[in-house]
Amino acid sequence: MKKFLDIYLNDQLALGVGWRELARRSAGSNRGTELGVALERVANGITEDVETFRDIMRGLGVRISPVKPVLAWGAERIGRLKPNGNLRSYSPLSRFEELEFLAMGIDGKKQLWTTLRDLAGLAARLPDIDFDELIGRAELQRAEVEPLRVRAGTEAFAATAD
Predict the structure, then answer these.
(1) Closest by CA position to 48, among listed 65, 24, 82
(2) Given this model, what pLDDT does residue 105 score?
């Protein structure tokens, strides 16, 4: 049913905007480091994915909700207010949680591309979209984030043992 696909796509677009903003924030918080460089690549990839997703929606004639992406953008900003173990500064826990949430988002994005290709049957309707390439790109992003996530978790939890 087109109505349900439209809602699903708008919900997923909002999530993509939220992940993009999180990746950008995390890259900025780690600017000037090896982690910051890697996160900048991931943020750029997620930005490309959000634009590809908008192209998919336009290709299907789906009206893009002006509200849902703005709400996701705002929710990401509100999430910054969460206690992180330091009163006013970025903490090792902040770094780990950002990477953990990014990993979840990338896993979700891979599932999204698979859902659109296989369950929604969009590969046939949108032959110019290479869903296998998008799935592969998500796998590469996840592979890039995972060692960073592990290292940040080790550092965060070693720091809390003090």
Answers:
(1) 24
(2) 94
